[in-house]
Amino acid sequence: MTIITFFISLLFLYNVESARVLLTVMDQGRSHATSINTFMHRLQKDNHTTALEFAWFHPDIDFGMEERFIDMKGFENPFASPDFDKIAFEEDYSFIHQAVAYGFGSKTCNNILKHKKERFNEILSEDWDLYLSDSLFAVCGYGMAEISGKPHVMMHSTDLESAQGSFKAFSRCKYNISFRILHNLFINFRNYATFVPSNLPFTMLDFSVSKYFHRIWAAYDWFGSFIFTAFVGNFAQKWALRSIIPFPYFSFSEYNRRSSYTFTDMPDSLFPPASRTNDFFSFGAYCKPSSKPLPPDFLSFIDDPKSKGTILIAFGTFIDWRRAPKHYYDTFSTIVNQLTDYRVIWSMKGERPPGLRDHVKTSSWVPQNQILHHNKTVLFLSHGGLKSTKEVICSATPTIFVPMFGEQTRNSWLIKEKGFGRIMNKFNINVKELGTHVREVLEHPTYQQNANKFLTYYMDQPIPTLDEGAFRFNKLLKYGGKMPAFFYPRALDLSHITVLNLDMYLILPAMLIYLLK
Ligand SMILES: *[C@@H]1O[C@H](CO)[C@@H](O)[C@H](O)[C@H]1NC(C)=O
Ligand SMILES: *[C@@H]1O[C@H](CO)[C@@H](O)[C@H](O)[C@H]1NC(C)=O
Ligand SMILES: *[C@@H]1O[C@H](CO)[C@@H](O)[C@H](O)[C@H]1NC(C)=O
Fold first, then answer.
1. Domains in the chain, please, with CATH?
2. I want to staple 409 with a disulfide (CB 3.0 to 4.6 A). Which of 74, 200, 381, 514 is the partner?
């Protein structure tokens, strides 16, 4: 017995050899790469070699990883289309846009395999131990992992998307049908209908599971994303990868199903409670230190003794005020000019527009995190990307969100639920509306109190999530990149009809019809 214990403890003491991992993200994927970056840097501390691959159209920032970019200069980046501004400012975002984005990624991948096949093969031939795949639009990255024969892990730059989650059989009841009927009818009907949809529509910013129509919508969004990702988006991927993955071609659902782990950047404490499987881990609940001091011009502006507090307006890298519809700028500038007791810092590209008063500072670059952490900052106006959302949490700053697209509405909703954010509807941008939101937050200390309270929950962890994530990652490597079969949920091997309980919905009415006949 002691000998066995001895060998078992040896197994746990055994240090993981350093591995070579390749992270593949979407085209010019700065946003996704920087979400996953923190975790990659943590892996470097354990002596793993980390490299980053994406299709590269123009120079970008230093990601702190080895670079394996595929130079696509001279080709059109489908994601940089002017249609994008139209979607951001004027349209509701849905799973249909998501499928279009897989089409964009497929277009680039098709170009890579046609014109840059050598570079693709060069990266592939480096013999990586493990591939980490961006769950969104990294089509050639999926192809590379698939033909390498090496294991792969899905990396989600936000929460698990509903389609990808279902391919991996998450959050579903794994029992047989008799048990599932009992479970669903009498115990807990928690499934796709009760999750806040990631593409939360602007008519549902007050989403609540107690509202019947909202649950219907959640289910619609879920099935929609499932179908559009599994069939429409996948059709483009099959086409793009046809030269390296022959008939029956690439299957995105199968690719997800066979992945050996799922890591997400969505902090668990922020998301509503959800069922989990062994092969799921969120490393997202961390705060990046803001150790760098504020540049002197910002500091002197903020420290003005006449100021009652600082207000920061920053809408991320995507949104350009010059291309926004005119009433956006007019509304914001009108309100901002009225807030003379405060100091307003407004991140905008291009020239400073005329008419802004002296208490407003504009800049094409702002040290967002440092400003948020400054103790005079009282309000942030943001688009609700997950990275900004986390900076809001870590700096405990009351926020008014103006979400534009993607899962930003959902992120905003999460903070609103925690009581330190408000959401402004982009289809209803006017002076009265914005004025009300701003006054509400500035005049009620509860927003600040709730932000402080949530931060204590967020940081209350047995061990830092990045360390736990690295521990799980090392364990996976110890097993050669794929855990033994018992580690994974049984539902992975069942059909979708069974896993989604669709059979159950059919059997009950069928029995009733039979009995009543
Ligand atoms: C990483 O490598 C350095 C230098 O070889 C070594 O000192 C350190 O202990 C290693 N770290 C881990 C976590 O193995
Ligand atoms: C179904 O699962 C339940 C719970 O796991 C078990 O008790 C029951 O025996 C199973 N029924 C059948 C028909 O396998
Ligand atoms: C804000 O920070 C400064 C220095 O960092 C400190 O002197 C001041 O007391 C702080 N103010 C409040 C209200 O905490």
1. 16-179+226-282 (3.40.50.2000), 296-459 (3.40.50.2000)
2. 200
CB 458 within 8 A of CB 393: yes
Nearest atom in ligand 2 to the alpha carbon of residue 178 is: 1
CA distances from 298 to 28, 317, 336, 341, 387 (A): 30, 20, 18, 17, 22
Q: pLDDT per residue over 316-374, tens digit each?
A: 766 778 888 899 999 999 999 999 999 999 999 888 999 999 999 999 999 999 999 99
Ligand 2: centre distance to CA 379 (Å): 54
Residues 312 and 377 sit within 8 Å (Cβ to Cβ): yes
Write out pLDDT tens, residues 70-126: 999 999 999 887 777 788 888 888 899 889 999 999 999 999 999 999 999 999 999
Find the DSSP H helices in 80-116.
83-90, 95-115
For 231-253, b/e burial (b = at least 16 CB within 10 A) is ebbbbbbbbbbeebbeeeebbbb
- Nearest atom in ligand 1 to 15's CA: 14
Q: Assess whether the C-beta atom of 179 lies below 6 angstroms from ligand 2.
A: yes
> Residues of the chain whose pLDDT is less than 70?
1-16, 171-191, 317-318, 499-500
338 lines ligand 1 (CB under 6 A): no
Q: Please give the helix or strand (H or E) that residue 167 lies within, else none.
A: helix 162-167
- Cβ–ligand 2 distance for 427 under 6 Å, the answer no
Q: What is the 3-state secondary structure (H, E, C) of 20-31?
A: EEEEECCCCCHH
Q: What is the pLDDT of residues 424-458, one digit of tens each?
A: 999 999 999 999 999 999 999 999 999 999 999 99
Q: Which residues pair with 22 in a beta bridge?
A: 51, 131
Residue with tokens 């928690």: 190
Tell which atom from ligand 1 comes closest to the C-alpha of 46.
13
Centre of ligand 3 to C-alpha 191, Å, is: 47
What is the best residue among 174, 175, 181 to mutate for testing ligand 2's pocket, by most ligand atoms within 8 Å of CB?
Answer: 175
Ligand 3 centroid vs 302 CA: distance in angstroms?
12
Query: What is the phi/psi pair of residue 134, to 5°?
Result: -55, 130
- Measured CA to CA, the distance from residue 228 to residue 249 in angstroms comes to 17
Residue whose CB lies within 8 A of the most ligand 2 atoms, among 177, 179, 184, 504, for a mutation test: 179
Distance CA 421, CA 444 (A): 12
**Angle between helix 117-124 and helix 95-115 axes, rounded to 10 deg:** 100
